[in-house]
Amino acid sequence: MEKFFKLKEHNTTVKTEIMAGMTTFLTMAYILAVNPSLLGNPVCGMDSGAVFTATALASALATFIMAFWANYPIALSAGMGLNAYFAFTVCGGDLKGMDEPWKVALAAVLVEGIIFILLSFFKVRESIVNAIPANLKYGITAGIGLFIAFLGLQGAGIVVADESTLVKLGDFSEPGVALCLIGVLITAVMYHFQVKGYILWGILITWVLGIGAEMIGWYVVEPEAGALSLIPSFTASSFIPKSIAPTFFKFDFGWIGENLSQFVIIVFSFLFVDMFDTIGTVIGVADKANLLDKDGKLPRVGRVLMADAVGTVAGSMMGTSTITSFVESSAGVAEGGKTGLTAMTTGFMFLVSLFLSPIFLAIPGFATAPALIIVGFFMASSIKKMHFEGDTADCVGGYLAFLIMPLTYSIANGIMFGMLAWFGIKVCTGQIKKIHPIMYVVCALFVFRVITMII
Questions:
Q1: Which positions, given as ranges, span the membrane (predicted)?
Q2: Run of H or E residues at 168
């Protein structure tokens, strides 16, 4: 372990890394419930059991690549947002009316993954990461912090939708809201007293409190409303992994030949969101783990990006949407994870989930929400590193990155606004010579993205 992961060099221990890996898994285990639900809905029509298995296997594979090849504490799985785009925009929109539209969507994910492998091999994505100005990187990290905190608040029902103001406070009489706030308090107190594994303990204690609320009748189980039982239910069949046969290698290339231009747009959309979600996540997690070098660059970033590219190709073959780096990895980093041993633990937990799915699927959103809220607090602290004086492009670009990200519910959108503002101000203030050539290409892609969103 020491020689392979270089634990002493990173000032960490096996116990710390394993605890961090388990924490990361618990904060992202919701994807094992959400992905089958999204891709298995009638609009998309995939086999939910097969999607569950495919998601777990592809997540484990990609995370192991990250662990053993890149040696970073970053876990990967089917990206939130990308799976919704897969199910509702592609299957339910672009391909609406087709029989089994998901087969074309999986083909698009396959092509996207292959393109990413080529881009990663030729270090195009690596060059993009390293070309982003430091102030933008800090803004991206802070924005991700606000974004994941918002995910936690939303998942617990503390923040809910409102027609007039878009968002408002949720109902404090709801058990999920109250228990989440108690969980935040418990986690924060344990952090104050430097309790080892405080984030993981916060998740588990909040879950146990939820089980107690269910037993006394406060938390009411209503499957049709999405309120599932918090008490794991085991049957003999629950220990047997579901087969991926219904979705394995199920591609439909026939439609593509007759609708090439439409297929290209679908692939580009997957490509765009995945690329910049991954870049933003990698920068944010690496910054909080102090993995960036003195120039703000991430060593071995090419291997990091290759992990999600290979994972995406493998996932499409098994039958799941785009695999990408998960921002919840920052929960493990906050727990002390610094090496690939953290990722290896998370990957192992994905394999275990194949046999113990009732346990992992019973942990509710309000139990993992305190972890996301507290981790958001740590990541948002990167705003202290930002410069709000000096070069206007750097200042405004970084500001827009962390502002737009949570407000548009997209890491990619935050990066897009930040970079386009940075580029535009640089040009308008006569600093064209200071713009890295890669940034011209990146901004051109963002402009093209804006055009495709308009037409």
A1: 20-39, 51-72, 104-124, 136-160, 172-191, 198-221, 263-285, 305-327, 347-378, 399-425, 437-454
A2: strand 166-169
